[in-house]
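Hi W., the uracil complex you wanted:
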Amino acid sequence: MRIDKLLCELNIGSRSEVKVLLKKGLITVNGEKLLKPETKIDEKTAVVSYKGKEFRYQPFVYYMMNKPAGVVSATEDSLSGTVLDVLAENLKEIYGDDLSGVPIRDIFPVGRLDKDTVGLLLLTNDGELAHNLLSPKKHVEKRYYVETDLSITRDAADRLMKGVAISEQEFTREAKVELLSDKECIIAITEGKFHQVKRMFQAVGLKVLYLKRISMGSLFLDETLPEGKVRELTQEEVYRLC
Ligand code: URA
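Structure:
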């Protein structure tokens, strides 16, 4: 990889900013001063030093967020705060205002949770993993904790499990429902249709009052992670997901 590209990916600066840093001799790679932006280096072994800090390249990053209500699952939005704003606030709390060396480029949320839905959201720049988790063909299981306005009867639970019509053309696949109390359950679905859980409950005459995603494939929401907080996935979590 070209050194200027690596420096950009490490979030040290824009292409033109890192060019200046290189020309000024402020960047060393494996102890050697590199001046030319086009110099090719092996990004897997390179140790970049800048301002007394050392940086190593990480091709992909994976963050788990306990999404709070009130923000949208998008990279930008003209009206509301986004989950990327929440991520940036968290990273500033962890690393301070200087995010150089913190790989945050090209991160996006894997799938969407509604603005009022809380819980597990994966943020990454790994497009292949996102595709594997979201592809309708892969049937990745997503589990949600649900609170409803009225009692979830055995009959309603059975209908949800068999599959319901959520529009004239859309039928849901089989789901699993675990009743926790009169108005609380866990539902596991293997699709990701628009507002799917809310529309499934609507189809059996119930309104969802609270919705929290608790797992996606092999990834489970860390119950110690407060709402609005973010942590990096552990190596084991990444390994199991990939
Ligand atoms: N189903 C919904 O209705 N909303 C979500 O946010 C996720 C699944």
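The mean pLDDT is 95.

W.
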